[in-house]
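FAQ: What does the model actually see?

It sees only this:
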Amino acid sequence: MFTDQTVWITGASSGIGTGFARQLAKQGAYLILSGRKVDALEAVAAQCGGAGRCLVLPFETTDYDALPALVDKALGWRGQIDCLINNAGISQRSLAIETKFPVYQKVIDVDLLAPIALTQLVLPHMVGRKSGRLAFISSVAGKVGSPMRTAYSAAKHGLIGYADALRVETAALGLQVHVIAPGSIKTDVSRNAMVADGSRRGQSDDAIENGMDADKAAKRMLKAMARGEREILIAKGVERHIVQLRRKSPNKLFDAMEKMMASGYAQKMKDSAAS
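And it is asked to produce this:
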């Protein structure tokens, strides 16, 4: 499906982004690998065919002034971008009442505004070609309001809203827009999450450590994209159930989530980070 296509992946230096890169390399895609850590991106490129198959294009996703030149460089590499996977992001683990406002600004900037900014610059190219895929990595927390993730849920809900509206506008123009909502994937997302004062959490949690392998998750995502699925839920167990419950019976979901909080969920999360 992706053979000889040019695919741009943000957040490619680790986790799901690296999983996408490895799976796409197996399919014979050409890869544009972006993130902040040059050494890590070069290591991923080495696993995926090296300079002949990969362009390492490091940047800070929220450096909006730099984006036009970066998009020009990406387009100049092979003359086209067949697929953009907006994967870069940051999470949060803190109660709203304790969270400083700059945490909200940072999370929404990285998880919502940055992918919109990049997409808006790539969009004219794809519309001009009447072809292209845009994939947005949201989260189960983008479908269900999750405790200790008010900033993250806000950003990921917003990303789904943007993608859904964009899909309606561009379907007749030849574009495909995919929203992907993963549950717990075994990555550093929890370790790298921001806490109330904006510092790094530095600790994973059981759900993430027992989560799905990132390569397996990416493989499932790509298969669903190839099938043309517009909303892709990659979750199992309770996480899958709460998304389905949100659709069928919102009040039952709200009751269940409130009960979870009342049972000491926040303290358990804090204890996990402190251990």
